[in-house]
Amino acid sequence: xxxxxxxxxxxxxxxxxGFGSGLPGRAVESGSDSLKEVEQQELQGMGAGxxxxxxxxxPAGIVIGAIGGALVGRSNGLEEELGKAQQKLAQLEMELxxxxxxxxxxxxxxxxxxxxxxxxxxxxxxxxxxxxxxLNAITEGFVLAIHFRTGSAELEVGYGExxxxxxxxxxxxxxxxAHIDGYAxxxxxxxxNLSLSKQRVEVVKRRLLAHGLGSxxxxxxxxxESKARYAVEDFEGLGxxxxxxxxxxxxxxx
Length: 254
Known about the structure:
This protein is an alpha+beta fold.
């Protein structure tokens, strides 16, 4: 005999409330698209399982089928997300490999550039040393003597051309200054010889300036007869004392 309460109704329907939220390992709410896709597949699996269970075993089968279907659906969704994550990881590893290769290439190029820079630095240092040696050779070995007639401060033929070439060369060597020293022979009065040697220096200086040489590179000195080397009786030697001598020296700090 079956005893029923008056407020109890017998129906052929079976209702499941709040089913999905009670499954193990599932969050009630999801903040990512990936978990939403997993939940969708879980619901789809639940529906399919419930339908199959209901057909086979009735209301009880619906419950069991729903649970099994939800688990299968969730498992499939997680496997799909795992596959996507693995693909992303593989892509990142490839990008990392390419980045490391690029880094290695850049490192090799940097080392090559440093090697070239070192070679250029050595070549530059060698070139500077050679240039310094050349300057020293010029200052130690170059002398130009310009001779004058008795009592004259006029340049003889040919000296103007030599002074022009000298000015051109000195313009290319800014590290050098030119000393212009004026002399006279032993004859005559001292004041006159000093004035005459100064006039000779001025003639040479004007010619150098006319060829573009800066006055800051010219150093003038006059000695008159004070450094005469030949006696009055040595007529040819006297001609050698009437002169302007040009020689080079290194500028301060070069």
